[in-house]
Write a structure and sequence with these properties.
InterPro entries: Glutathione-S-Trfase_C_sf, Glutathione_S-Trfase_N, Thioredoxin-like_sf. By secondary structure, the chain is mainly α. It has helices at 10-22, 36-44, 67-77, 88-118, 128-140, 145-161, 164-167, 178-187, 194-199, 201-213; strands spanning 2-5, 27-30, 52-54, 64-65. The chain binds glutathione.
Length: 222
């Protein structure tokens, strides 16, 4: 299999965690931001976001675009090491959390992270090229002080909900699920922000543990 990705994207990390948990062999192909759309549009029928998985196997789909679809596909492709709970109520809950983390919380993480990298956290990489990319991303996603404030309030609520992790090993049921994978990947950029490291140490312990279970190297900040 081949995973088309941006090496630093937290959505691509989510897909790699899933591939790693299933123990599937794959190669990554890093695309260049900006030029990526030219390659993706004809492959995906118009979608321009990464990750995109190319199974490259006969009898399998040619393209699986979007991290949630990739998780669903991998569960069908390799059902043995399952990350979807068996009990129906747990299954519902796991996919509900996965979708919320993907559509709302992953976006909020992006806002808070890029705002930090352009301000207080500029010293992480003050180079012109890095700051240029950060500013393009901020413009592309309309990251402004007002939208960052909303995003950080949304993250605070998310961390209240995810504090289930303080009491139980997994967000849903008794084994790792798509909810744990999504949360671990999509919140991982916060590891570079001292205020999250200080206030939510349990979050980063859990992200670290899930990366270990998924055999995925830890992101910057650990
Ligand atoms: N819901 C999508 C979101 C993916 C996403 O937002 N990817 C970003 C990188 S973190 C991207 O590819 N942006 C480029 C673009 O929008 O053209 C998924 O889960 O795959």
């Amino acid at each position: 299999m081949r995973l088309l990705q941006f090496s630093t994207s937290h959505y691509c990390r989510k897909a790699r965690l899933a591939l790693g948990y299933k123990g599937i062999e794959y190669r990554v192909e890093n695309l260049t931001p900006g030029l990526h759309a030219l390659k993706l549009k004809p492959l995906t029928g118009g979608l321009t976001t990464l990750p995109v998985l190319l199974p490259e196997e006969s009898g399998q789909p040619e393209v699986v675009a979007d991290s949630t679809r990739i998780l669903r596909y991998l569960e069908k492709y390799a059902p043995d090491r399952s990350f979807v709970p068996e009990a129906e109520s747990d299954r519902r809950q796991a996919w509900l959390l996965e979708d919320w983390l993907d559509e709302s919380i992953g976006v909020a993480t992006r806002f808070v992270y890029y705002d930090y990298r352009a301000g207080e956290g500029k010293s992480i990489d003050p180079s012109l090229s890095s700051q240029l990319v950060i500013n393009v991303v901020r413009r592309q996603y309309k990251i402004t002080p007002a939208t960052v404030k909303l995003a950080s309030e949304r993250l605070e609520n998310a961390l209240f909900i995810l504090s289930i992790w303080k009491e139980r090993p997994y967000l849903v049921g008794n084994s790792l699920s798509v909810a744990d994978i999504a949360a671990s990947g999509l919140l991982s950029p916060l590891a570079l922000l001292p205020r999250y490291r200080q206030n939510y140490p349990w979050l980063f312990d859990k992200i670290e543990e899930i990366h270990r279970q998924c055999r995925e190297p830890l992101p910057p900040g650990f």
